[in-house]
Task: structure prediction
Amino acid sequence: MFGKPVFLITDLLIFALVFVIIAFFIYAMRKPHLRAPWRQVVRSKAGVISIMVLLVYISIAILDSMHFHPKIENSSVEGEEQYNGEIQSVFDQIVAEIRNSTEKTYSAPFAAYLFAKETVQLEDGSKLREHPRLKWGGVHLDNPENEKSADILSLAVTGIVKAFIAWLVLVALLCLMLSLRTKNSLSTVVKNIVHGESDIPWRTIATTLAILLLVLLVGAEWATKYHVLGTDKVGEDVLYQALKSIRTGVVIGTLTTLLMLPFAITLGIMAGYFRGWIDDVIQYLYTTLNSIPGVLLIAAAVLMLNVYMGKHAEEFASLTQRADLRLLFLCLILGLTSWTGLCRLLRAETLKLREVDFVQAASAFGVGSTQTIFRHILPNMMHIVLITIVLDFSGLVLAEAVLSYINIGVDPTMNSWGNMINSARLEMAREPVVWWSLAASLFFMFTLVLFANLFADVVRDALDPRIAKQ
Amino acid sequence: MIAYIVRRILYAIPILIGVNILTFLLFFVVNSPDDMARMFLGQKHVTEEQIEDWKTERGYHHPLFYNTEEQGAEKFTKTIFYTKSVRLFVFDFGRSDSGRDISFDISQRMWPSLAIAVPQLLIGLLVTISLALLIAFFRGTYIDYWAVVICVALMSISGLFYIIGGQFIMGKILRVVPISGFEDGIFGIKFLVLPVLIGIVGGIGSSTRWYRTIFLEEINKDYVRTARAKGISEQMVLFKHVLRNAMIPILTGVVVILPLLFMGSLITESFFGIPGLGSYTIDAINRQDFSIVRSMVFLGAVLYIIGLLLTDISYTVVDPRVRLN
Result:
């Protein structure tokens, strides 16, 4: 439909991760002991709110991970399809309008004029210093000074109406589904939701849905006519950049942990289960790695990667692929500095578990070590692994920004919040201040990290057996 | 006790050797000195002589492990591994790629880093412990709930925002303190106020929440219930019993980072133009000065190991139940 698909390495890993999550979900639904903690998660208000917000972010990240070479329309060669060398994603197609709406340079949010004055030649030959009109933002207005606020308002109203209709449809479907499932009449279901008398906090879900739809649809309505968050130095839409950065953040937050899991789990269990010299070697390994300050290890590794990439520049088919490889490498090296914590936890847990009666009984019956590990030890540690995955996520998203700021993060050509903040630093020193790039990146990052943190808390409370259930 | 410390120090040696070999592999085996020279001099239009000169000037012209051209012990000492890595063990950092004495730079730049890190740590501890104790006093109420929510929100803000926002509000709009710079002596304080303040505010969220958890864990223990049963007032329980016992995990958590204070904060120092070790490292990273980065990696590892040792010792000091053996 779009063109020739391209699979970057991180894309494949993201799809693999989505597949694993769905598979785990289906598996867990069938096992009561696995279902119970997740029930507790969806029954807490903070849990459902953060799940919904995170789903929005993750959907954008997934859409942005489906890459392809766009087809060239009206190609010169007949009967043969021509593809553009540039790599785009499905998400780029959805927001094509703001993607292609570049201006000359800075413009403020909702502006119809450029931010800087320029000398323009008038028809009679005289010259004038003024703020020129934008090429895209607000061009439909004849007289922006008078019409703009009314136009913004009317767009907002359209957005609100659309959001309301969408919300009504979704909530009506939800009520219908609930009434069919619980075999209650529709009015009882609605009453229960309104009064907040349900196991799953449907009222909170409906409210969150309303807010999300409002933000998304009003924003989308505005974005068709204006640069909602302004444009940056080269005139690219800041909203587009901030949205594209979501994928970078999510990839770093999830893939880093995913890539380090095999090492942490294998080594942690081996150290705890076999003890003796294996334990000594593994402990030595992680103490050594741990004793190098993380930032410095990352800096050293990325410096070396720069040298390597400079030497083998011809091996990378395109800039996108190069940036992608660098992103993957960053995930790997971040994983290398962070697996030690999990490994230590798992080692301690294994030491504890191998003395527990059912493991002792298994070995008394002559069950081999491999089977004991897979049947008895590994399943009993999955809660630690899951808690680590969600707890690490927000820290990694924040770390990306700091690393990109000191130029050892993602590729400078890649959209990321860190790169946005990095370039926004000089903008803050301008007079008047260019604040929107910074504000946009911080807002998008803050929302993701905040809800990831809230989600992590709920998941930890639900999964950690040491926290007493009320 | 002394036997324990000696054993721990001996145990640190293989770890440092490991760190050393790891950095050596990272810096010299993954990429040869030729690659580094080419990177440093620019990718194109570099002649072989220029590369050789660059390497000789910085001592990268020796072979990696074994020098066949030399006699006796020099077969091993005239190698990159010996001159660049083994010498780190006696804290001989050598010269940076731009020709400056690294040890001298470190001894100079250590003090500004400490001038920021020490007040930040002390005031930060005071503020977060007081806040956490206050929240623990109101546990289970709406104050507790919202305080935790605010802590999570504060944690979710990027550290970069605290710095940029703080500089913008305090330095540019209110004009209370200079935005950046550094000066020795008593007049230097005005340059330190903002970075210290920002460091404290940036850490409030996570530390307060963590200390609150520690306090709540203590509050539910039996000895606290006994104290209450004896009729001791809530304030006395919190200050005399809970605070004292909770200080054990808090203090030992702090001791681990004490030696690393020397390293300075990378981001803060480079933002505020403070000539400490953090900005030294960042500059080295940006200039691709491999010698400095390598030295700092080694120094960081040494300090970390000292921190671990101090933690173990501090356990025995604050908690008489712990015996080292």
Remarks:
- The domain at 112-318 of chain B is CATH 1.10.3720.10 (MetI-like fold).
- Residues 165 and 282 of chain B are 21 Å apart (CA to CA).
